[in-house]
Write a structure and sequence with these properties.
about 260 residues; Arc Repressor Mutant, subunit A; 7 strands; elongated
Amino acid sequence: MNQEAINDDLEQDVLPFSEGLRLDAKIEAIVFASPKPVKTMEIFELVKDPENTVTLKDVQECLSQLMDYYRDRAGGFTLRYTKGLGYQFQTVPAAAPVLEMQFAQRPRPISRAALETLAIIAYRQPVTRAEVEYIRGVDAGSIMKNLLERDLIACTGRKEIAGRPMLFSTTTEFLKVFQLSSVKDLPSLESFQPSHEALAKALEKLEQGEQPVDVEDYIGDEPSESQIKFAAADENADSEISFPAGDMLPPGSGEVDL
């Protein structure tokens, strides 16, 4: 086959696309190319035309049809909607084993200390570093640096007190990792507390002089099930650091809209 014939074949292959995409194809391309979830209104603003032939309802119907299509095809990825965030292509849970092998050298679990720090920030946000350290009773500088690098927390302002320390809150990446629509969907703190019966039993053992009393028996702590794998980070990401007494980041740096 000569070069002219090859060019003719290529031209025929791309001809349907050069004539213009259908609405569902445009929406599919927008979601595919976006590095983050895309909201319906954002998609509508990109596909609407001057003649107003495309309506918001048309976009919603196309998104619904695309979700049905990718769900029915039972492929390795699907179109998912996360409330409050928007639409995004994601791999299906069944693909987890093969993806774990593909990225075996990259993911590493977040440490228990980092999870504790992240939980404090999530439930008390916005919160200062000093407040986190007061609750944990240890320095949190290196851990908070690691959480900042992973984009799980961000500086969202400064507290109006002496020194104007930085305030930290969770980010949209935090919501995506833990599959939450908003921080309001976090489990209530009461669900982590031991029951009155368990407390009474522990106190009874203490009064009877039975030592030691294993706290794990009463709070049901299973760190192996609560650890989440994140993207690879430098092996020294958790190395000890110290922040200066003044500004740690520019005012308003890393501000996110939750």
